[in-house]
Design goal:
Distance between the termini: 27 Å
Order of helices and strands: HHHEHEEHEHEHEHEHEEEEEEEEH
Number of strands: 15
Strand order of the largest sheet: 5-4-6-7-8-9-10
Helix content: 25-40%
CATH topology of the largest domain: Rossmann fold
CATH class of the largest domain: Alpha Beta
Shape: globular
CATH architecture of the largest domain: 3-Layer(aba) Sandwich
């Protein structure tokens, strides 16, 4: 890690004197100089680098390049390779993470921002299929959160739904008044658990992380949340929006309305003109600036469709048609 990246990391999660545009422009300059894949992408777009004076003008790398290229800034060795999950035959994304402490800082600070002190919680993680892989960024995050709770009751659950049911019964019966309970799970597993063990979890925060992974037919978020709310006697299902290619997450307290931490910004691009990027309200392709991605690429054009609201919250409302082949063809010969 050089002096510049150390300075960025040192100041990124501070509460005061945070200028997002300034951080973004400095990080763009750094990644243009030190990330070969990103620099070639920007050069092939024939953009006058000196004209970029706002984070909205920074070029966004299509997320598909994480499937085909090693996206890393600087001459660094990765500490961990996070890999996306997928169905058989798919090419998975790989995120070469040069500094795991940066990832931990990001998700711990974000959790604190939205949910408070992690030591006030008991975390139960229902992550089958993800837990079977040691390359899942979600499992890594959940593992650290579980450890940070310092509670013997926190832990992982694979397919042992009966054990999870007994633990939830125990926690609610004994009423650990000084601890809040978070059940975080991949969507298909929460639906399976809801079918097998409907129960009153009105005092539990249930958070779905998305993903059917071929286990169930795809469903609308409203359908999923309605099923879970009915089975568990809850009024809101929380959600986490994250991905292998990012080191930061956004959170929803219900209805799929997300908020991002201050070092992460969601903007939208025109579907037919991807260089047209705004943060105005409305619908478009979801672009994300994740300033925690210091050592990879902080500026990513995802394959999701976003609805941005006037209060800077956002919804993920679908996927772009033919997303897997959409991308920019400029890099095909690299």
């Amino acid at each position: 890690m050089n002096q510049f990246t150390s300075k960025i990391q040192e100041n990124l999660f501070l509460e005061d004197n945070f200028n997002f545009n300034e951080f973004a422009l400095k990080l763009f300059d750094y990644q243009y100089e030190h990330n070969n894949v990103y620099r070639q992408f920007v050069d092939l777009l024939k953009i006058d680098k000196s004209s970029i004076d706002s984070y909205l003008k920074i070029p966004f790398l299509p997320i598909s390049f994480y499937k085909t290229h090693k996206v890393i800034s600087g001459n660094l060795n990765e500490q961990k390779i996070f890999e996306s999950s997928g169905t058989t035959g798919q090419i998975n994304s790989k995120h070469f993470v040069a500094d795991l402490s940066l990832y931990e800082q990001s998700f711990l600070k974000a959790f604190q921002q939205f949910y408070g002190n992690i030591e006030d919680w008991i975390v139960l993680a229902l992550l089958p299929s993800y837990l079977e892989r040691d390359t899942s960024s979600l499992v890594y995050m959940a593992d650290v959160l579980i450890q940070k709770t310092k509670s013997e009751h926190s832990g992982f659950y694979l397919y042992n739904y009966d054990t999870l049911k007994d633990k939830l019964d125990e926690l609610q019966t004994k009423k650990y008044s000084n601890k809040k309970i978070l059940l975080i799970g991949v969507t298909f597993a929460l639906l399976d658990f809801a079918e097998q063990y409907p129960m009153d979890l009105s005092n539990v925060i249930i958070m779905e992380t998305g993903g059917m992974k071929g286990k169930r037919p795809e469903m609308l978020r409203e359908e999923i949340h309605a099923i879970l709310n009915k089975a568990f006697h809850t009024t809101n299902i929380h959600s986490e929006y994250g991905m292998t290619e990012l080191l930061s997450q956004a959170y929803s307290f219900g209805n799929g309305i997300f908020q991002a931490p201050k070092w992460m910004k969601i903007v939208k691009r025109d579907i037919y003109n991807p260089m047209l990027v705004t943060e105005n309200t409305g619908r478009g392709g979801l672009n994300v600036i994740d300033l925690a991605n210091i050592h990879s690429c902080a500026f990513i054009a995802t394959e999701d469709i976003v609805q941005i609201h006037s209060d800077n919250t956002f919804e993920v409302v679908g996927r772009i048609d033919n997303a897997a082949i959409r991308g920019c063809n400029l890099m095909v010969s690299m």
